[in-house]
Specification:
The protein is 22% helix and 40% strand. By secondary structure, the chain is of the alpha+beta class.
Length: 498
């Protein structure tokens, strides 16, 4: 009994001591807990104030963006597990990452664009007026954004695009020799920068597959990369029809849009790339460009060749629809056809006295396109307005007046459900022997986009050379010989656009 009493006393003392200890430490724990809760409430209040301040700044600076955010938060279908989701491509382009890949730029022109040729196939499209194409694409995106309550981006955006083309061909040349060749005919990377609604820029980098060895004349394997074109454009067609471009671009002289795999004679004779300025106007179906460039040629007897008109030009284009018939008409004029790339490469070569010519020669280009789906007919003419001085360029002992014509007819259809077309074409030149152009050429081409963004083409081309009695003498008395009358070429191309 005594032992039980002692055990009860011991337990009572133990619990009493624990209560005293607990009572002594509890105020300290409660005090620390209160301090932590008070600090957490202060931080939460500070964060709420910062969020409210940020929301007010968004409401003031970007009211449309604020409204869109509220709509997305309230929408019943909003994906809460993916808050970075964008419902449209324009939303992603405007408010997504600063660097995007886009099918709308470079060689990948938007289908059914109001300026560029419509085509379900990414055939060889024109490199002329690329600045205007970008402005029209931006106009379409801005119009869509305004219509759907999406803020037009003001931050810099970079869009990437490009192309690769591989070709294999069999050629039976004028001199009755044949050759099989395989080539990476084109590699291009397009970098489009949009600094804001008014400023667009572009860098088009390609590689030079024309480089030849000095001994054998064969292509070198380490072809150099180069900036082929680069320009800055100031303009926003939704607000002003005028725009200004400066940079290295193809002059708005001609179009040279063709289904040919090989190069049409019109392009060799007339296309010009230089560093220039362009003042343009585009509103509705009309577009006009006036341009000037430094040029390469200079006069030997007066300064007229180096004058303003000698290195300037104008282009006017329009299109309209009559029922289902679509008509596109363009006309161009340039102060000196000796400045074209074909002339500079084959006749007025840099590094010699051939750049000194006695008089400049105006050039004209006219193009008309008729489309009545699924048929399309395109014709383009480019030529000198008068004869050259015979001491600069002659044909059959008189001053030459080089000219070229290209006519193509295309029908669109489906092959195994894939977009396809067949094109038949004819080309002719006059007094263009010095440029290495044929007198006549006939071609047929078949295109099919079997895979997305991939184009397969097969072309047969037959060239007829100038007559045995025809002669042409360039500057510095270089005689162009006739080496044969007929040439046949079969070319297969695979092009990938991204």
């Amino acid at each position: 009994m005594k032992n039980k009493f002692m055990f009860a006393v011991f337990v009572f003392i133990l619990f009493s001591f624990g209560s005293v200890v607990s009572a002594a430490t509890t105020p300290h724990k409660k005090s620390a807990l209160k301090e932590n809760i008070s600090d957490l409430r202060a931080r939460t209040k500070s964060l709420e104030e910062q969020v409210m301040l940020l929301q007010n700044q968004i409401d003031v600076a970007h009211p449309v963006l604020s409204e869109n955010m509220m709509k997305m938060q309230k929408a019943a279908s909003y994906d809460k597990d993916n808050k970075n989701r964008f419902d449209t491509l324009v939303e992603m382009y405007a408010h997504g990452p600063a660097v995007v890949t886009s099918p709308a730029f470079g060689v990948r022109r938007a289908a059914e664009d109001e300026f560029e040729d419509e085509s379900p196939l990414m055939a060889q499209l024109s490199s002329i007026n690329e600045d205007l194409v970008l402005l029209h694409l931006r106009k379409k995106m801005d119009t869509y954004a305004v219509k759907n309550g999406i803020e037009i981006p003001t931050r810099p955006i970079i869009a990437l695009s490009g192309a690769l083309e591989g070709m294999a061909n069999y050629k039976y040349d004028y001199n009755r020799t044949d050759k099989v060749d395989v080539d990476l005919s084109s590699a291009e990377l397009d970098i489009i920068g949009e600094t804001g609604p008014w400023v667009t820029s572009a860098i088009i980098a390609t590689y030079d597959n024309d480089r030849l060895t000095t001994t054998t004349g064969t292509r070198v394997s380490n072809s150099k990369l180069r900036i082929d074109r680069g320009f800055i454009t100031i303009g926003q067609l939704n607000r002003c029809p005028l725009y200004f471009t400066i940079g290295q671009i193809f002059a708005p002289f001609g179009r040279y849009s063709s289904h040919m795999v090989t190069t049409p004679s019109t392009q060799i004779l007339g296309r010009l790339k230089d560093r220039m300025v362009v003042l343009g106007y585009s509103k509705g179906p009309f577009n006009v460009q006036v341009y000037g460039f430094p040029g390469e040629t200079n006069g030997t007897n007066n300064g007229s060749v180096k004058g303003l008109l000698g290195h300037s030009g104008i282009n006017v284009g329009t299109d309209y629809t009559i029922g289902k018939l679509e008509i596109d008409i363009e006309g161009s004029a340039m102060g000196n056809i000796a400045e074209s790339d074909g002339m500079q490469k084959n006749v007025f070569t840099m590094g010699t006295n051939r750049e000194s010519i006695r008089s400049r020669v105006w050039a004209f280009d006219g193009r008309v396109k008729f489309k009545y789906a699924p048929f399309t007919l395109v014709s383009e003419y480019v030529g000198a307005a008068r004869r050259f001085d015979s001491r600069d360029l002659d044909f059959n002992s008189v001053g030459a007046r080089p000219q070229a014509l290209n006519v193509e007819g295309t029908v669109d259809f489906k092959t195994m459900g894939k977009p396809s077309d067949i094109t038949l074409g004819y080309g002719q030149t006059w007094q263009a022997l010095a440029l290495g152009l044929p007198k006549n050429n006939f071609f047929a081409a078949y295109d099919i986009a079997f895979f997305k963004s991939t184009l397969f083409t097969v072309e047969y081309r037959h060239d007829v050379n100038y007559g045995w009695n025809d002669t042409s003498t360039q500057a510095a008395s270089t005689v162009v010989p006739i080496v044969g009358r007929h040439k046949n070429t079969v070319t297969a191309r695979m092009a990938v656009y991204f």
